[in-house]
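R.M. (postdoc): so does anyone remember the format we settled on? I'll just put the structure tokens first.
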């Protein structure tokens, strides 16, 4: 399954030694490393010239010496044109040496996201790699912003300032041999719309009270060295990287050296797949309550149990760039697309091999929805009626041999729910596999609104797609029954079967 729909940042290292004074017009400066050399190959994506040119030149001179001493080969590129899956596979560490996180080719973005998620390359980034926003006519690369801790560039200290950097994780390999605190001179300190802390692991931060000259351009909590533990690739970002004299700072070059050696190590153990949970806050209370419970339920299965869970209440996130970074989308209380653009992106995601687990209102559609693809996706099912108030119901397992229902009893009593009945029944479609149905023994079900007859599938899959729809999703009782939870676990695992 693709994570070229995925997720998970930029900097490159590889190949043969390079001249640090070569012209920036030269796209690739060194002979590519052979595949057998990949474990000692550093790829460097540089930004030559301009205000950061001095730092880049000094850093490349330092890297050339470092590579010779440590037995690495070195390849420099000045734009992202060479970057694709095969090119990245030739390198062990990608160093993004002040190169911006925009103006990347689409192929390069997809290859980089995949490599970071799969851990096939390490990454070390500097300074300008955090220029996250809409610049030079390019929209922000949202995946990269998320990878960097969900931040957006806000401001900087243009006149430059010296400041004290305080190490927070002295036992981390990147901080081995680094002073507990040290001064960085003449730095262009970036600020962001939020601190990345909580989304990344902070290794060091800057003491804004130590700015010389003093500056009122501050963040409060201001991390300057961090890594993202939510991807398989080892990665480190340094906010510093503006002035050439930085390379004369022993603490900085110690961190630089440590970061490369650490990023070149074995990829992190990491969950098999990434989950994007979508919910809508602007719905009825019972559906919000269900979404809150659902987020807790799936979040408790996070990293230690084999998956990474991200949550969004922004339907705008249903776009190609965002969706391609996830193996599965879980829609808790809203269908996966409101605008034509969002719907088209979800259609491409599913038709390209994506997975979807939808609950209750996620499958709601009627004459106002006007999304025929989604009706067909649900097996031709259109909302017909429901019971009210919510009630428990006896459910029949239609096929106990299917992986989603294996090990389940022939029937069970589901917790109270507002049951949607669809018409026509999805069972009528040849490409629909009904897994669980509401038993006719429940009829009549409801008091105010009553369902008295008719076929009533409640869990099914359209076999043309990797999807499961579950009718459950109203109120706070959905996740209290172990049998039903077992069904949900099975559905998630089956949808992710290619990852196991």
């Amino acid at each position: 399954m693709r994570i070229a729909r995925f997720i998970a940042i930029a900097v490159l290292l590889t190949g043969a030694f390079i001249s640090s004074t070569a012209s920036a017009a030269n796209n690739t400066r060194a002979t590519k490393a052979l595949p057998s050399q990949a474990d000692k190959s550093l790829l460097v994506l540089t930004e030559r010239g301009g205000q950061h040119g001095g730092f880049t030149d000094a850093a490349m001179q330092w890297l050339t010496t470092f590579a010779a001493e440590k037995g690495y080969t070195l390849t420099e590129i000045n734009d992202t044109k060479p970057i694709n899956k095969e090119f990245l596979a030739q390198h062990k560490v990608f160093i993004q040496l002040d190169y911006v996180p925009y103006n990347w080719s689409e192929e390069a973005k997809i290859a980089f996201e995949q490599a970071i998620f799969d851990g096939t390359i390490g990454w070390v980034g500097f300074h300008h790699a955090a220029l996250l926003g809409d610049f030079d006519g390019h929209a922000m690369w949202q995946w990269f912003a998320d990878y960097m801790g969900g931040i957006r560039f806000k401001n900087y200290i243009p006149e430059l300032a010296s400041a004290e950097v305080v190490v927070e994780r002295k036992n981390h390999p990147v901080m081995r041999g680094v002073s507990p605190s040290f001064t960085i001179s003449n730095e262009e300190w970036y600020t962001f719309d939020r601190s990345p802390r909580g989304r990344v692991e902070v290794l060091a931060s800057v003491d804004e009270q130590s700015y010389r000259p003093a500056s009122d351009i501050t963040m409060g909590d201001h991390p300057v060295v961090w890594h993202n533990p939510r991807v398989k690739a080892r990665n480190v970002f340094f906010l510093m990287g503006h002035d050439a004299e930085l390379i004369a700072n022993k603490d900085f070059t110690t961190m630089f050296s440590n970061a490369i050696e650490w990023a070149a190590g074995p990829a992190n153990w990491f969950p098999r797949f990434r989950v994007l949970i979508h919910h809508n806050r602007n719905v009825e209370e019972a559906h919000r309550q269900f979404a809150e419970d659902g987020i807790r339920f799936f979040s408790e299965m996070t990293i230690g149990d084999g998956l990474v869970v991200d949550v969004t209440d922004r339907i705008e996130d249903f776009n190609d760039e965002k969706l391609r970074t996830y193996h599965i989308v879980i829609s808790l209380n809203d269908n996966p697309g409101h605008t034509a653009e969002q719907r088209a992106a979800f259609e491409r995601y599913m038709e390209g091999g994506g997975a979807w687990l939808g609950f209750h209102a996620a499958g709601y559609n009627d004459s106002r929805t006007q999304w025929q693809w989604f009706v067909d996706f649900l097996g031709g099912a259109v909302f017909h009626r429901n019971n009210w108030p919510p009630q428990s119901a006896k459910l029949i397992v239609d096929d106990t041999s299917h992986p989603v229902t294996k090990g389940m009893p022939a029937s069970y009593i589901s917790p109270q729910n507002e049951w949607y009945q669809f018409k026509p029944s999805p069972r009528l479609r040849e490409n629909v596999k009904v897994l669980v149905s509401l038993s006719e023994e429940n009829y009549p079900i409801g008091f105010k609104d009553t369902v008295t007859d008719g076929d009533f599938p409640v869990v099914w899959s359209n076999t043309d797609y990797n999807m499961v729809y579950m009718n459950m999703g109203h109120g706070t009782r959905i996740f209290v029954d172990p049998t039903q939870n077992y069904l949900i676990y099975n559905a998630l695992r089956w949808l992710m079967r290619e990852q196991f």
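R.M.: ...and that's the designed sequence above, right after the tokens. Also worth knowing: Residues 1-36 have pLDDT under 50 and may be disordered. The first strand starts at residue 41 and ends at 46.
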